[in-house]
Amino acid sequence: MKQQQIDTYKRVYARDGYRCCKCGETDQSKLQIAHRIRQGTKTQKNAAIKYIQSFIRDEIGERWSMERVWNDVIYHQFNLVCSCAKCNSSFNIFNNRIATEILLNSILDDINSA
Ligand SMILES: [Zn+2]
Prior knowledge:
Helix 2 (42-60) packs across helix 3 (66-74). The protein has helices at residues 3-15, 42-60, 66-74, 97-113; strands at 31-35, 80-84. It has one domain (3-103). It is mostly helical.
């Protein structure tokens, strides 16, 4: 994991108060970071990245590399949430296109205003 991603994880843990955003678990040995647009298997990951690439092309007319999508979107703090292992998969929104589009728009807004 890159230093930038480690720093983002630390910010997300702090933002979410070191507790699972679903069940409130505070045992740090059980906490992890969930991805709202999830990583999943390699096939799921590639499908998510392809979807995000075409979304960005449609929204702002830019072609982003898989690496840029990975670093700037998948590891954006808006896509991350503090979770326990038990609740992790419940944070996945990639099966909900409306929620996914809202999230992607907010991430693009945040990147553009940075
Ligand atoms: Zn939980």
